[in-house]
Amino acid sequence: MITRRSERPLKTDERRGISMQAKREAALVVTGTTVAVFLVCLVALWIFAGPGRTPERREILIPAGTADLIAAGQNPLDLPANWSFRSGDVLVLDNRDDVGHYVGAWFSPYGEVTEITVTSSATVFCTLHPAGQIYIDVTPRRTDWMLAVPPTLLIGPAFGLVLLMALRMLRRLEDPDPLAGTEVGRRGTRDLEPEQLVPGVTEDPGPSSLIVIRE
What is the mean pLDDT of the chain? Predict the structure, then answer.
């Protein structure tokens, strides 16, 4: 009698192993792509920011009567509509007018000195300009690596998933059933191995295996 083991447990283990391998592959592809996008964003930031410099302090003296002149449509401070800064620069408002003034969300009370640290570009409300608003153009520094985080989180995982799907589609075109190759290989190996026989039983029954009972 020839004994053989059931193949069903092997198939279950193989499917579980392939599932774990697919999860590890997905995690590696998405993580690797996200890290690569982050490095690309850092390089782009390094090129765009250009050579660094120490933060500057820009002081604006607001004399008395400024608000009345601005209300009349004049520009007594001769301020441009676009202000150019570098990240980390400090805008100092020395308000000697009779009223307070706004620059965006910052308020400068009359008779006080207000310091504003500029960090990002924006079009803001401004009572110091006759147009009522100004555009603050802020050039980032090479050390502002946090600017690379939003585009990385937006592009990195999505690009990684697209790359993962493309890799799996190519793999399916080459091998439609990953278990088929494993099964064929296992069967070929089993055919090459000698079969184990139960002791006391010959493969080819002959006269020596016959039992004669005499009465």
Answer: 79
Residue by residue, DSSP assigns 115-168 as EEE--S-EEEEBTTSTTSEEEEEEEPPTT-GGGGHHHHHHHHHHHHHHHHHHHH
> Considering the domain boundaries, does residue 88 fall inside one?
yes
Q: Which domain holds residue 172?
A: 8-48+146-209
Q: Is the pTM of this model over 0.70?
A: no
Domain count, the chain: 2
pLDDT score at 115? 94
Confidence of residue 209 (pLDDT cuts 50, 70, 90): very low
Q: Are 76 and 105 found together in one domain?
A: yes
Question: Quick check: is 162 in a domain?
Answer: yes
Domain boundary among 84, 112, 140: 140
